[in-house]
């Protein structure tokens, strides 16, 4: 239990910061609680891990760096929340109620019970997680958690298969927990953080759409993600793709919420921080962060400054890391000829992965198709802009595979499924934003409302 | 409140929600069984839990060293070779494992073997002196005493 306490301390700190920065917008209390807790986990774990790494790089030992980073995050959050607690205003724009939403809650409750059981089973069999967990993230965390050894986590002498050039947020989060307790290598902290990230991801999708389009739509979006078998496979394997997706969904959801509240500064700041934390988690996050930043700049103009200022500190850490610490990688290069063949193989593999997302009829595509057909799309089809960073991220996957110097088949086999898992929650979020909102009443009453 | 044209009422949203709910519950039951079967069959495929114990003595006996040499008896560059190196690196971290056998700046070397072999002789070929067979296929050598 003590081994996972630092994870909960970071969560608590993040929650306080979210409470201080996110003004309620008339959503049901349960949606607000769910969203705040999920965002709080992402922000707390991500920000305190980043602070821990900065303190390590500045020369502090792992144990003091862990304690100082969590205390700063917790203390700062407490002071900030206390100062802003009376400023909370409730602009009323509640999503419509739908009395049949309980159908979704039953589905979610049953699925959550099975998911929790499955995660517990996986963790008991594979407490160290799967390849990426122990060969990359937790192995590098051991360097970060050892006095004077943190540079080993980025040593060019590490095997290329352990990717010393990858960003260090998730390793830092694990190392911070180990440094607190002195139990370096103990599987409980990374396992707990990984499992909570999975739950935070699904909660963000649920509560984000719930806040924007009502409980039924939120439940349907979360249920669609639950029918994706890779989510079940990776939920407990401690891969960084799940926290990456969590940061990206959080950042996008907050940007959409901010737009609805005239680009509210608190939401913009939170969105910027989460996007930068995505960039500090994996390189795909860097692509997403840049794309979301540009999109927000185009949409919000001057008000995007807050987003950029909030993203800047962690983005600076990423830039300094990439320029001065990360060893070069020979993963990319130009390929002469056979462009069509490579592109065909990439698209075919992604198609196979999409088909393999579920076991028909329990498949995200079936859930999505049913929702699109039965709910219908909004007229006019808005907002479309959240799709831009998501599309850019998708295009970057294809570009990366086209440029890889590794054996393309092996590269695709070993990573395409995980990339699909990263992007699926973002796609579901954008899609359910574009669907009509379920409301109570009959179609006849609805027609009458339309005429009025 | 959304504009009326952007809302949907009646049986359609109920059906959508019911379909999503039933499919997700069905998927949950099926995937629970599937994951249970997969983890039961493959389990900890790299036996990573056991690797930490396997290399514990080597880590202990090279205390104070930041870099330790490493070689194994798998085919060079094969998946098995890379997986064994990654597993050993996880177990030995925060020591850096140096897998380049031409390096002469590393004092201790860890041999990682899949079966009992003539460990001393293998060391001689690589100009390494056998310090001890630590069990489980892990053998500790010292650089350069034999030539």
List the main descriptive attributes of the protein structure presented here:
heterodimer, A: 452 residues, mainly alpha, 18 helices, 71% helix, 0% strand, globular, B: 147 residues, alpha/beta, five-stranded mixed sheet, elongated
End-to-end separation of chain A in angstroms reads 59 Å
Task: Identify the overall geometry of chain B.
Answer: elongated
Low-confidence stretches of chain B: none
Q: Mean pLDDT of chain A, nearest integer? A: 92
Describe the protein in words:
The complex is a heterodimer of chains A (452) and B (147). Chain A has 452 residues and is an all-alpha fold. In chain A, 71% of the residues lie in helices and 0% in strands. Chain A has helices at 5-21, 29-57, 62-84, 102-125, 131-144, 169-181, 188-213, 215-226, 229-234, 241-260, 265-279, 283-300, 304-325, 339-355, 364-375, 387-403, 408-433, 443-451, and one strand at 437-438. In chain A, helix 3 (62-84) packs across helix 6 (169-181), helix 7 (188-213) packs parallel to helix 17 and helix 8 (215-226) runs antiparallel to helix 17 (408-433). Chain A is globular and about 70 Å long. In chain A, 54% of the residues are buried. The model of chain A has no long low-confidence stretch (mean pLDDT 92). Chain B has 147 residues and is α/β, with parallel strands linked by helices. Chain B has helices at residues 11-41, 48-54, 56-61, 79-92, 119-125, and strands spanning 7-8, 67-72, 96-98, 108-112, 128-133, 138-143. Chain B has a 5-stranded mixed sheet, sandwiched between helices. In chain B, helix 4 links the parallel strand 2 (67-72) and strand 3. In chain B, helix 2 (48-54) crosses helix 4. The relative contact order of chain B is 0.13. The model of chain B has no long low-confidence stretch (mean pLDDT 89). At the A-B interface, helix 4, helix 5, helix 8, helix 9 and helix 15 of A face strand 1, helix 1, helix 2 and helix 4 of B. Strand 1 of chain A pairs parallel with strand 1 of chain B.
